[in-house]
Protein backbone atom coordinates (compact mmCIF):
# COMPACT_ATOMS: atom_id res chain seq x y z
CA UNK A 1 0.00 0.00 0.00
CA UNK A 2 1.67 3.19 -1.17
CA UNK A 3 1.45 6.43 0.80
CA UNK A 4 -1.56 8.49 -0.18
CA UNK A 5 -1.01 11.70 -2.06
CA UNK A 6 -0.67 14.67 0.25
CA UNK A 7 -3.90 16.48 1.06
CA UNK A 8 -3.82 20.08 2.20
CA UNK A 9 -6.22 20.55 5.10
CA UNK A 10 -7.88 23.88 5.72
CA UNK A 11 -6.67 25.40 8.97
CA UNK A 12 -7.44 28.50 10.97
CA UNK A 13 -4.76 30.90 12.16
CA UNK A 14 -4.46 30.34 15.93
CA UNK A 15 -5.59 33.28 18.03
CA UNK A 16 -2.19 33.25 19.75
CA UNK A 17 -0.53 34.26 16.45
CA UNK A 18 -2.77 37.32 16.22
CA UNK A 19 -1.91 38.37 19.78
CA UNK A 20 1.73 39.04 18.93
CA UNK A 21 2.75 42.56 17.97
CA UNK A 22 5.82 43.41 15.94
CA UNK A 23 8.14 43.48 18.96
CA UNK A 24 6.98 40.10 20.26
CA UNK A 25 7.33 38.63 16.77
CA UNK A 26 10.96 39.72 16.81
CA UNK A 27 11.51 38.33 20.31
CA UNK A 28 10.02 34.97 19.29
CA UNK A 29 12.45 34.80 16.36
CA UNK A 30 15.30 35.83 18.67
CA UNK A 31 14.41 33.05 21.10
CA UNK A 32 14.23 30.43 18.37
CA UNK A 33 17.11 31.88 16.32
CA UNK A 34 15.10 31.85 13.10
CA UNK A 35 14.84 34.37 10.28
CA UNK A 36 11.78 36.62 10.83
CA UNK A 37 10.89 36.02 7.18
CA UNK A 38 10.39 32.31 7.96
CA UNK A 39 8.01 33.18 10.79
CA UNK A 40 6.02 35.53 8.56
CA UNK A 41 5.81 32.83 5.88
CA UNK A 42 4.56 30.37 8.49
CA UNK A 43 1.76 32.73 9.53
CA UNK A 44 0.75 33.27 5.92
CA UNK A 45 0.57 29.49 5.34
CA UNK A 46 -1.62 29.04 8.44
CA UNK A 47 -3.92 31.80 7.22
CA UNK A 48 -4.22 30.20 3.76
CA UNK A 49 -4.70 26.66 5.12
CA UNK A 50 -1.42 25.36 3.68
CA UNK A 51 0.68 24.94 6.83
CA UNK A 52 0.91 21.16 6.41
CA UNK A 53 -0.12 18.27 4.18
CA UNK A 54 -1.81 15.11 5.42
CA UNK A 55 -0.74 11.71 4.09
CA UNK A 56 -1.40 8.15 5.18
CA UNK A 57 1.13 5.35 5.43
CA UNK A 58 0.51 1.66 5.99
CA UNK A 59 1.18 0.01 9.32
CA UNK A 60 0.62 -3.53 10.55
CA UNK A 61 -3.02 -2.87 11.24
CA UNK A 62 -4.60 -0.11 9.16
CA UNK A 63 -2.94 3.17 8.26
CA UNK A 64 -1.12 5.92 10.10
CA UNK A 65 -1.92 9.59 9.54
CA UNK A 66 1.13 11.76 8.94
CA UNK A 67 1.15 15.55 9.05
CA UNK A 68 3.97 16.84 6.88
CA UNK A 69 4.78 20.46 7.79
CA UNK A 70 5.45 22.98 5.06
CA UNK A 71 9.07 24.08 4.72
CA UNK A 72 8.69 27.27 6.84
CA UNK A 73 6.73 25.43 9.54
CA UNK A 74 9.33 22.65 9.53
CA UNK A 75 12.07 25.22 10.14
CA UNK A 76 10.06 26.68 13.02
CA UNK A 77 9.44 23.21 14.47
CA UNK A 78 13.10 22.26 14.27
CA UNK A 79 14.02 25.52 16.00
CA UNK A 80 11.49 24.91 18.79
CA UNK A 81 12.88 21.41 19.24
CA UNK A 82 16.48 22.60 19.44
CA UNK A 83 16.05 25.81 21.43
CA UNK A 84 13.10 24.95 23.69
CA UNK A 85 12.31 21.23 23.94
CA UNK A 86 15.68 19.48 23.92
CA UNK A 87 17.15 21.59 26.76
CA UNK A 88 14.33 20.39 29.04
CA UNK A 89 15.15 17.53 31.42
CA UNK A 90 13.99 14.07 30.41
CA UNK A 91 14.34 10.74 32.18
CA UNK A 92 17.55 8.77 31.76
CA UNK A 93 15.63 5.80 30.36
CA UNK A 94 14.84 7.68 27.13
CA UNK A 95 16.33 6.35 23.90
CA UNK A 96 14.50 8.04 21.04
CA UNK A 97 13.59 11.55 19.95
CA UNK A 98 16.77 12.80 21.62
CA UNK A 99 20.29 13.42 20.22
CA UNK A 100 22.67 10.46 20.44
CA UNK A 101 19.94 7.87 20.97
CA UNK A 102 18.47 5.26 18.64
CA UNK A 103 16.90 1.82 18.57
CA UNK A 104 20.43 0.48 18.86
CA UNK A 105 21.35 2.40 22.03
CA UNK A 106 17.99 1.30 23.42
CA UNK A 107 18.72 -2.39 22.81
CA UNK A 108 22.35 -2.09 24.02
CA UNK A 109 21.17 -1.24 27.54
CA UNK A 110 19.74 -4.76 27.85
CA UNK A 111 22.40 -6.69 25.91
CA UNK A 112 24.86 -8.59 28.09
CA UNK A 113 22.56 -8.25 31.09
CA UNK A 114 19.00 -9.42 30.61
CA UNK A 115 17.61 -12.93 30.93
CA UNK A 116 13.95 -11.85 30.97
CA UNK A 117 12.14 -9.03 29.19
CA UNK A 118 8.81 -7.26 29.44
CA UNK A 119 8.01 -5.18 26.35
CA UNK A 120 5.04 -2.80 26.24
CA UNK A 121 3.75 -0.31 23.68
CA UNK A 122 1.68 2.81 24.32
CA UNK A 123 -1.35 2.87 22.06
CA UNK A 124 -1.69 5.99 19.87
CA UNK A 125 0.83 7.86 22.00
CA UNK A 126 0.95 10.96 19.78
CA UNK A 127 -2.81 11.53 19.33
CA UNK A 128 -3.23 10.70 23.03
CA UNK A 129 -0.99 13.64 23.94
CA UNK A 130 -3.43 16.52 24.03
CA UNK A 131 -3.20 20.22 24.71
CA UNK A 132 -3.88 19.84 28.42
CA UNK A 133 -0.76 17.67 28.87
CA UNK A 134 1.37 20.29 27.13
CA UNK A 135 -0.12 23.06 29.22
CA UNK A 136 0.49 21.08 32.42
CA UNK A 137 4.00 19.74 31.80
CA UNK A 138 5.46 21.89 29.03
CA UNK A 139 4.07 25.40 29.48
CA UNK A 140 5.67 26.09 32.92
CA UNK A 141 9.07 24.95 31.64
CA UNK A 142 8.75 27.07 28.49
CA UNK A 143 7.68 30.01 30.62
CA UNK A 144 10.80 29.67 32.77
CA UNK A 145 13.02 29.31 29.68
CA UNK A 146 11.63 32.51 28.11
CA UNK A 147 11.80 34.45 31.36
CA UNK A 148 15.49 33.59 31.63
CA UNK A 149 16.21 34.55 28.03
CA UNK A 150 14.04 37.61 27.37
CA UNK A 151 13.44 40.69 29.50
CA UNK A 152 9.68 40.95 29.10
CA UNK A 153 6.74 40.91 31.50
CA UNK A 154 4.64 37.88 32.38
CA UNK A 155 1.75 38.78 30.08
CA UNK A 156 4.09 38.95 27.09
CA UNK A 157 5.74 35.68 28.10
CA UNK A 158 2.32 34.02 28.22
CA UNK A 159 1.63 35.19 24.67
CA UNK A 160 4.83 33.63 23.33
CA UNK A 161 4.21 30.41 25.26
CA UNK A 162 0.76 30.17 23.65
CA UNK A 163 2.27 30.55 20.18
CA UNK A 164 4.86 27.84 20.84
CA UNK A 165 2.20 25.43 22.14
CA UNK A 166 0.01 26.08 19.09
CA UNK A 167 2.96 25.40 16.78
CA UNK A 168 3.33 21.92 18.30
CA UNK A 169 -0.33 20.92 17.88
CA UNK A 170 -2.79 19.96 15.19
CA UNK A 171 -6.42 19.78 16.29
CA UNK A 172 -5.23 20.00 19.92
CA UNK A 173 -2.98 16.88 19.78
CA UNK A 174 0.67 16.45 18.87
CA UNK A 175 0.82 15.20 15.27
CA UNK A 176 2.99 12.48 13.87
CA UNK A 177 5.32 14.10 11.37
CA UNK A 178 6.21 17.32 13.21
CA UNK A 179 9.88 17.45 14.35
CA UNK A 180 8.76 18.53 17.83
CA UNK A 181 6.42 15.60 18.56
CA UNK A 182 8.89 12.92 19.81
CA UNK A 183 10.63 15.47 22.03
CA UNK A 184 7.33 16.68 23.46
CA UNK A 185 6.35 13.09 24.22
CA UNK A 186 9.60 12.59 26.11
CA UNK A 187 8.89 15.58 28.33
CA UNK A 188 5.26 14.75 29.13
CA UNK A 189 6.14 11.10 29.80
CA UNK A 190 8.81 12.00 32.35
CA UNK A 191 6.50 11.55 35.39
CA UNK A 192 5.50 8.10 34.13
CA UNK A 193 9.12 7.17 33.45
CA UNK A 194 10.09 8.28 36.95
CA UNK A 195 7.27 6.39 38.65
CA UNK A 196 8.15 3.18 36.79
CA UNK A 197 11.84 3.58 37.56
CA UNK A 198 11.22 4.19 41.27
CA UNK A 199 8.97 1.15 41.47
CA UNK A 200 11.58 -1.09 39.82
CA UNK A 201 14.24 0.09 42.26
CA UNK A 202 11.94 -0.89 45.11
CA UNK A 203 11.31 -4.30 43.53
CA UNK A 204 15.07 -4.91 43.21
CA UNK A 205 15.39 -4.90 46.99
CA UNK A 206 12.39 -7.15 47.46
CA UNK A 207 13.34 -9.75 44.83
CA UNK A 208 17.13 -9.56 45.05
CA UNK A 209 17.56 -9.08 41.28
CA UNK A 210 18.48 -6.11 39.10
CA UNK A 211 16.13 -4.38 36.66
CA UNK A 212 16.74 -2.07 33.72
CA UNK A 213 14.21 0.07 31.87
CA UNK A 214 14.35 1.96 28.57
CA UNK A 215 11.78 3.78 26.50
CA UNK A 216 12.09 4.40 22.78
CA UNK A 217 9.32 6.90 21.92
CA UNK A 218 6.22 4.82 22.83
CA UNK A 219 7.98 1.46 23.26
CA UNK A 220 8.86 0.53 26.87
CA UNK A 221 11.31 -2.29 27.65
CA UNK A 222 11.90 -3.65 31.17
CA UNK A 223 14.48 -6.38 31.72
CA UNK A 224 16.08 -8.23 34.59
CA UNK A 225 19.09 -10.44 35.22
CA UNK A 226 16.73 -12.91 36.89
CA UNK A 227 15.00 -15.80 35.18
CA UNK A 228 11.56 -14.21 35.44
CA UNK A 229 9.58 -11.04 35.92
CA UNK A 230 6.76 -12.12 38.24
CA UNK A 231 3.13 -11.53 37.18
CA UNK A 232 2.67 -9.19 40.16
CA UNK A 233 5.46 -6.93 38.91
CA UNK A 234 4.11 -6.91 35.38
CA UNK A 235 0.65 -6.09 36.68
CA UNK A 236 1.97 -3.16 38.71
CA UNK A 237 3.89 -1.84 35.68
CA UNK A 238 0.70 -1.84 33.64
CA UNK A 239 -1.19 -0.19 36.49
CA UNK A 240 1.36 2.64 36.72
CA UNK A 241 1.18 3.31 32.99
CA UNK A 242 -2.61 3.30 32.86
CA UNK A 243 -2.77 5.30 36.10
CA UNK A 244 -0.96 8.10 34.28
CA UNK A 245 -3.74 8.16 31.68
CA UNK A 246 -1.91 6.25 28.96
CA UNK A 247 -3.40 3.30 27.11
CA UNK A 248 -1.48 0.12 26.34
CA UNK A 249 -1.63 -1.64 23.00
CA UNK A 250 -2.55 -5.06 24.38
CA UNK A 251 -1.58 -6.87 21.16
CA UNK A 252 2.00 -5.60 21.51
CA UNK A 253 2.60 -6.53 25.17
CA UNK A 254 5.15 -9.36 25.30
CA UNK A 255 6.91 -11.17 28.13
CA UNK A 256 10.06 -13.18 27.48
CA UNK A 257 11.09 -15.28 30.47
CA UNK A 258 10.12 -18.08 32.83
CA UNK A 259 6.38 -18.24 33.48
CA UNK A 260 3.68 -20.54 34.74
CA UNK A 261 1.48 -22.40 32.31
CA UNK A 262 -1.38 -20.28 31.07
CA UNK A 263 0.46 -16.95 31.30
CA UNK A 264 -1.19 -15.08 28.41
CA UNK A 265 1.69 -12.62 28.02
CA UNK A 266 4.40 -15.26 27.68
CA UNK A 267 6.11 -15.41 24.30
CA UNK A 268 8.29 -18.34 23.28
CA UNK A 269 9.96 -16.34 20.54
CA UNK A 270 13.39 -14.75 20.73
CA UNK A 271 13.24 -11.47 22.62
CA UNK A 272 13.15 -8.50 20.23
CA UNK A 273 13.73 -4.98 21.56
CA UNK A 274 12.83 -2.12 19.20
CA UNK A 275 13.39 -4.36 16.20
CA UNK A 276 16.75 -5.75 17.36
CA UNK A 277 17.83 -8.84 19.27
CA UNK A 278 20.00 -8.18 22.37
CA UNK A 279 22.15 -11.18 23.30
CA UNK A 280 23.42 -12.25 26.72
CA UNK A 281 27.00 -12.07 25.43
CA UNK A 282 26.54 -8.35 24.69
CA UNK A 283 25.94 -8.55 20.95
CA UNK A 284 23.11 -6.81 19.07
CA UNK A 285 21.69 -8.40 15.92
CA UNK A 286 18.93 -8.06 13.38
CA UNK A 287 16.29 -10.82 13.74
CA UNK A 288 17.08 -13.75 11.44
CA UNK A 289 13.92 -13.50 9.30
CA UNK A 290 14.49 -9.80 8.67
CA UNK A 291 18.20 -10.33 7.99
CA UNK A 292 17.31 -12.98 5.40
CA UNK A 293 14.90 -10.56 3.77
CA UNK A 294 17.53 -7.81 3.71
CA UNK A 295 19.90 -10.24 2.03
CA UNK A 296 17.29 -11.03 -0.61
CA UNK A 297 16.57 -7.37 -1.22
CA UNK A 298 20.24 -6.47 -1.63
CA UNK A 299 20.69 -9.37 -4.01
CA UNK A 300 17.61 -8.23 -5.95
CA UNK A 301 19.00 -4.72 -6.33
CA UNK A 302 22.24 -6.13 -7.70
CA UNK A 303 20.22 -8.23 -10.13
CA UNK A 304 18.04 -5.29 -11.21
CA UNK A 305 21.11 -3.14 -11.83
CA UNK A 306 22.66 -5.79 -14.10
CA UNK A 307 19.41 -6.42 -15.98
CA UNK A 308 18.87 -2.73 -16.58
CA UNK A 309 22.39 -2.31 -17.94
CA UNK A 310 21.87 -5.32 -20.23
CA UNK A 311 18.50 -4.03 -21.41
CA UNK A 312 16.62 -7.22 -20.48
CA UNK A 313 13.20 -5.66 -19.84
CA UNK A 314 11.30 -8.94 -19.41
CA UNK A 315 13.66 -10.26 -16.77
CA UNK A 316 13.76 -6.81 -15.18
CA UNK A 317 9.97 -6.82 -14.75
CA UNK A 318 10.11 -10.29 -13.17
CA UNK A 319 12.78 -9.09 -10.74
CA UNK A 320 10.63 -6.10 -9.80
CA UNK A 321 7.66 -8.33 -8.99
CA UNK A 322 9.89 -10.36 -6.67
CA UNK A 323 11.19 -7.13 -5.13
CA UNK A 324 7.64 -5.99 -4.36
CA UNK A 325 6.96 -9.22 -2.49
CA UNK A 326 10.11 -8.76 -0.42
CA UNK A 327 9.25 -5.14 0.18
CA UNK A 328 6.05 -6.13 1.98
CA UNK A 329 8.06 -8.29 4.38
CA UNK A 330 10.00 -5.22 5.48
CA UNK A 331 6.99 -2.97 6.01
CA UNK A 332 7.78 -2.75 9.73
CA UNK A 333 11.50 -1.93 9.38
CA UNK A 334 12.33 1.06 11.57
CA UNK A 335 14.90 2.81 9.39
CA UNK A 336 14.74 6.02 7.44
CA UNK A 337 17.51 7.94 5.71
CA UNK A 338 17.93 11.63 5.18
CA UNK A 339 17.24 12.63 1.57
CA UNK A 340 19.80 15.42 1.57
CA UNK A 341 23.51 15.42 0.81
CA UNK A 342 23.33 12.00 -0.82
CA UNK A 343 24.79 13.13 -4.15
CA UNK A 344 28.33 12.46 -2.93
CA UNK A 345 27.56 8.73 -2.99
CA UNK A 346 26.40 8.72 -6.61
CA UNK A 347 29.22 8.93 -9.12
CA UNK A 348 28.77 8.45 -12.86
CA UNK A 349 25.81 6.80 -14.55
CA UNK A 350 23.70 4.84 -12.10
CA UNK A 351 21.84 1.63 -12.91
CA UNK A 352 19.22 2.45 -10.23
CA UNK A 353 16.50 5.09 -9.95
CA UNK A 354 16.74 7.86 -7.37
CA UNK A 355 14.20 6.09 -5.16
CA UNK A 356 16.16 2.84 -5.37
CA UNK A 357 19.36 4.67 -4.46
CA UNK A 358 17.84 6.00 -1.27
CA UNK A 359 16.55 2.55 -0.32
CA UNK A 360 19.79 0.66 -0.86
CA UNK A 361 21.76 3.34 1.02
CA UNK A 362 19.25 3.02 3.87
CA UNK A 363 19.64 -0.75 4.08
CA UNK A 364 23.44 -0.68 3.86
CA UNK A 365 23.65 2.17 6.37
CA UNK A 366 21.34 0.41 8.82
CA UNK A 367 23.25 -2.88 8.70
CA UNK A 368 26.56 -1.05 9.04
CA UNK A 369 25.34 0.80 12.15
CA UNK A 370 24.00 -2.33 13.81
CA UNK A 371 27.01 -4.55 13.16
CA UNK A 372 29.81 -1.96 12.88
CA UNK A 373 31.71 -4.02 10.31
CA UNK A 374 31.23 -7.40 12.04
CA UNK A 375 28.50 -8.63 9.73
CA UNK A 376 27.16 -12.18 9.84
CA UNK A 377 28.65 -14.42 7.16
CA UNK A 378 25.21 -14.99 5.59
CA UNK A 379 24.98 -11.36 4.47
CA UNK A 380 28.57 -10.15 4.39
CA UNK A 381 29.24 -11.03 0.74
CA UNK A 382 26.23 -9.30 -0.82
CA UNK A 383 26.62 -6.37 1.58
CA UNK A 384 30.21 -5.73 0.48
CA UNK A 385 29.34 -6.32 -3.16
CA UNK A 386 26.53 -3.74 -2.96
CA UNK A 387 28.78 -1.18 -1.27
CA UNK A 388 31.29 -1.48 -4.10
CA UNK A 389 28.73 -1.84 -6.90
CA UNK A 390 26.69 1.18 -5.83
CA UNK A 391 29.60 3.24 -4.48
CA UNK A 392 28.24 3.62 -0.96
CA UNK A 393 30.83 5.13 1.38
CA UNK A 394 31.11 5.24 5.14
CA UNK A 395 29.04 8.39 5.39
CA UNK A 396 26.02 6.40 4.30
CA UNK A 397 26.02 4.85 7.76
CA UNK A 398 25.85 8.30 9.34
CA UNK A 399 22.82 9.15 7.20
CA UNK A 400 20.83 6.17 8.42
CA UNK A 401 18.57 7.28 11.23
CA UNK A 402 15.83 5.58 13.21
CA UNK A 403 12.15 6.52 13.24
CA UNK A 404 9.40 6.05 15.80
CA UNK A 405 8.70 2.50 16.64
CA UNK A 406 6.22 0.94 14.25
CA UNK A 407 6.14 4.10 12.15
CA UNK A 408 5.14 2.09 9.10
CA UNK A 409 8.09 3.46 7.15
CA UNK A 410 11.45 1.98 6.36
CA UNK A 411 14.12 1.86 3.71
CA UNK A 412 11.71 0.05 1.39
CA UNK A 413 8.55 1.98 2.22
What's the SSE blueprint?
Blueprint: E1 7-8, H1 15-18, H2 22-32, H3 36-47, E2 52-58, E3 63-69, H4 71-85, H5 103-108, E4 116-121, H6 131-149, H7 154-167, H8 181-188, H9 190-207, E5 211-216, E6 219-224, H10 231-243, E7 254-256, E8 277-278, E9 284-285, H11 288-310, H12 313-329, E10 335-337, H13 354-371, H14 377-389, H15 395-398, E11 400-402
Antiparallel strand pairs: 1-2, 2-3, 4-6, 4-7, 5-6, 8-9, 10-11
Helix pairs in contact: 3-4, 6-7, 9-10, 11-12, 11-14
Task: Report on the architecture of this protein.
This protein is of the alpha+beta class and 413 residues long. The chain is 47% helix and 11% strand. It contains 15 helices and 11 strands. The strands form 4 sheets. It has a 4-stranded antiparallel sheet with strand order 5-6-4-7. The longest helix has 23 residues. The protein starts with 6 loop residues before the first strand and ends in an 11-residue tail after the last strand.
Q: How would you describe the shape?
A: globular
Query: Mind summarizing the main beta sheet?
Result: 4 strands, antiparallel
- Count, helices: 15
Tell me the series of helices and strands, N- to C-terminal.
Answer: EHHHEEHHEHHHHEEHEEEHHEHHHE
Cα gyration radius (Å): 23 Å
Unreliable stretches covering 5 or more consecutive residues: 1-5, 332-348, 396-413
Mean pLDDT: 84
Question: Widest sheet: strand order?
Answer: 5-6-4-7
* Estimated structural class: alpha+beta
Distance between the termini: 9 Å
Helix content: 40-55%
Amino acid sequence: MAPAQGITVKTRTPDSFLALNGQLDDLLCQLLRVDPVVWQQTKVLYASGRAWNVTTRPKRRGVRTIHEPSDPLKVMSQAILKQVIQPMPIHGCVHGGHPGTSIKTNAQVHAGFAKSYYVLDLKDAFPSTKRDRLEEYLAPKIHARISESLEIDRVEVDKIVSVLIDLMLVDDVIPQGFPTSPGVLNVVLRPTDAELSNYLRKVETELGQKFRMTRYVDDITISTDGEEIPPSVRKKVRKIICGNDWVLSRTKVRYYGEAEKGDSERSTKTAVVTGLVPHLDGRISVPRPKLSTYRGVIYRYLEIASLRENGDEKALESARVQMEQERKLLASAHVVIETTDLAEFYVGTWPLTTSERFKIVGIIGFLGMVYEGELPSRIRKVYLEAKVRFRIGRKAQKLAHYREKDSGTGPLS
